[in-house]
Amino acid sequence: MQSLAEIKKELSAARACTDHIFSLFKPEALYERPLPERHRVIFYVGHLEAFDWNQICRWTLGQPSFHATFDSLFEAGIDPQVGSQQADVPSDWPSLEEVHQYNTKVREEVDQALEEAPEPVIRMAIEHRWMHAETTAYILHHASMSGKTPPSFSPQPESPPPHHTLIDIPEGLVTLGRREGFGWDNEFGEHQEGVPAFSMSKYKVTNQQYLKFVEEGGPTPPFWIKRGEQWFLLTMFEEIPLPDAWPVYV
Fold first, then answer.
1. Which of 132, 174, 204, 239 could bond to 247 as cystine, CB 3.0-4.6 Å?
2. Are 126 and 11 in contact (CB under 8 A)?
3. How far apart are CA 47 and CA 18, in angstroms?
4. Quick one: which of 151, 54, 170 has its CA closest to 106?
5. Cα-atom radius of gyration of the chain, to the nearest Å?
6. How far apart (Å, rounded) are the C-alpha atoms in residues 50 and 56?
7. Which H or E run includes 167?
8. Pairing verdict, β 224-227 and 191-195
């Protein structure tokens, strides 16, 4: 069992991460849909707080809604079906100021409710936010360069390419799943599986290694661009010559 102070610290760290990712979108870009199979970005700005409010305060502690429209609008994080045409337009969504006002109120209410809320529900909210940190970063990568505000960062330090030695893993039993504590529905129950011996590279597949696969007819990674005979990589905030020793995608 974690202390309430530790749980609050974890929630604060998750919030800071998602807040930072959303801050890298220019305000007007929050109403765009960089990936056809996902919602407009503004949905996720409201969804994270609506999830916390609905799960912790409304449904667990029975608190009355203070903005039922937004509770419902931002509730369902299920993405549109692949290939389906989305009929919504940016003007269908509330203003960013309205969403921020809702989010501020939600955080105040959630913070006050943490002492009463069961730990598994709070842990679910934290894990949910971290999952969206990952998916929102992927959406940000797909957003147009004109819709993003690059942060200040240091130049990539020079480093030697990895030496791809293989590591031998002996056969044995591996324990999968869990029997108690917080977990998603597909993480239960605990069981063991026999795994035969195998070998794997110490490092991730590099661009140089994967390029051989592409040249032999394999699919091109989504952020690779070929101009003439040279390959380039579309990073989060700029286009650069394809770095041979970098992992194919992180």
1. 204
2. yes
3. 12
4. 54
5. 22
6. 10
7. strand 166-169
8. unpaired
Looking at this protein, which amino acid is placed at residue 103?
N
Read off the tokens for 1. 């069992």
The token pair at 44 is 């996720």
Give me the tens of pLDDT residue by residue for the chain, a chain 250 residues long: 678 899 999 999 999 999 999 999 999 999 999 998 889 999 999 999 999 999 999 999 999 999 999 999 999 866 666 666 677 899 999 999 999 999 999 999 999 999 999 999 999 999 999 999 999 999 999 999 999 999 888 887 887 889 989 999 999 999 999 888 777 778 888 999 999 999 999 999 999 999 999 999 999 999 999 999 999 999 999 999 999 999 998 7
From 133, 126, 132, select the one nearest 56 (Cα to Cα): 126
Cis bond before residue 189 (omega within 30° of 0): yes
Structural domains of the chain, ranges and CATH numbers in brackets = 4-147 (1.20.120.450), 154-164+203-250 (no CATH), 166-201 (no CATH)
Distances (CA, A) of 225 to 213, 215, 230, 233, 248: 15, 13, 8, 6, 13
- Output the six-digit token pair for 118: 């069961």
As a whole number of angstroms, the distance between CA 48 and CA 84 comes to: 24
Query: Cα–Cα distance between 120 and 182 in angstroms, integer?
Result: 6
Q: 10 Å Cβ neighbour count for 147?
A: 18
pTM: 0.86
